[in-house]
Amino acid sequence: MASRPAVPDPLAGTLAARYTGVVLDIDGCLIRGHTPVPGAAAVLAALREHGLGPVLATNNASRAPDEVAAWLTQAGLPVEVDQVVTSVHAAAALLSHDETVLVQGTRALREGLEARGVRTTDAWRDADVVVAGFNPELRYAQLRDSALAIQHGARFLATNVDTTIPAEDGLWPANGALCAALSTTTGVQPEVAGKPNRGLIDEATARLPDPTRRPLVVGDRLDTDIAAGTAAGCDTALVLTGAADAASPRPGDPTPTWVLDDVGGLLRPPPHG
Ligand SMILES: [Mg+2]
């Protein structure tokens, strides 16, 4: 009886094969606006099929994980809810149970915090903390109340301070730009829950099938994705489909382990080394 031919490993020789799991950023990495980055669907499918996760870690707290999964799936990137971690998780971890929170953000942010036992208020005078997350429906009265609470001594906690959202037609103002309005008014800089802090990466790697070994963190921003991955002790890959211009890093930016034209580079041989 002839022996069965060996099944070729489709990941053999690829960058992904060097790792035991992959944490992916979403905006600017898998999708721009509502348009998937070319090859992103194939990458998600291949990583999943080979037990490398992936887990998606986004600084954007405006959507709940189930909304993110539904949005990506509808856009042609099939994702399960348990593959999504947002900066809501990281923000809740920085709040104590005796603090009352004024939420400047979406319903999803507020409900995400409340689901983790955080007490919220609509009255700025009652707030011990202002949690500011991205909200495309933000109104002036909310900015005003947040500024008043911070002036009167509330902590100022941002889910993230990404300055831009890469879209099909250019860069849109992100939560960092909205938080800058509060900083300009109050003179107070926010504490930051999401990337570049490692908490979000730790949450994501804990969900990988093999969380303890050798994860790779992938994203389009040196100052958040790559900084957070580095802080968490992981190798990192910068993709050039979003916010970053690898040719012009700013002082203090970390150096990624790999630089890829796009996320499809995970399924190609390593670009160097
Ligand atoms: Mg991004």
SSE order and pairing:
Elements lengths: L20 E4 L6 E2 L2 E2 L3 H10 L5 E4 L6 H10 L9 E3 H7 L6 E5 L2 H9 L3 E3 L7 E4 L7 H12 L3 E4 L5 E4 L2 E4 L1 H12 L4 E2 L6 H8 L8 E5 L2 H10 L3 E5 L18 E3 L13
Parallel strand pairs: 1-4, 1-13, 4-5, 6-7, 6-8, 8-9, 9-12, 13-14, 14-15
Antiparallel strand pairs: 2-3, 10-11
Helix pairs in contact: 5-6
Describe the structure.
With 273 residues, the chain is α/β, with parallel strands linked by helices. The protein folds into two domains: 19-88 and 196-267, Rossmann fold, CATH 3.40.50.1000; 94-192, Rossmann fold (3-Layer(aba) Sandwich), CATH 3.40.50. It contains eight helices and 15 strands. The strands form four sheets. It has a six-stranded parallel beta sheet with strand order 5-4-1-13-14-15, with helices on both faces. β10 and β11 (170-173) form a beta hairpin. α5 (140-151) crosses α6 (175-186). The longest helix has 12 residues, at 140-151. The mean pLDDT is 92. Bound molecules: magnesium ion. The site of magnesium ion has 8 residues, from loops.
List its salient traits.
20% strand; alpha/beta; 6-stranded parallel sheet; Rossmann fold; 15 strands; 2 domains; 8 helices; elongated; binds magnesium ion; 273 residues; single chain; 5-stranded parallel sheet
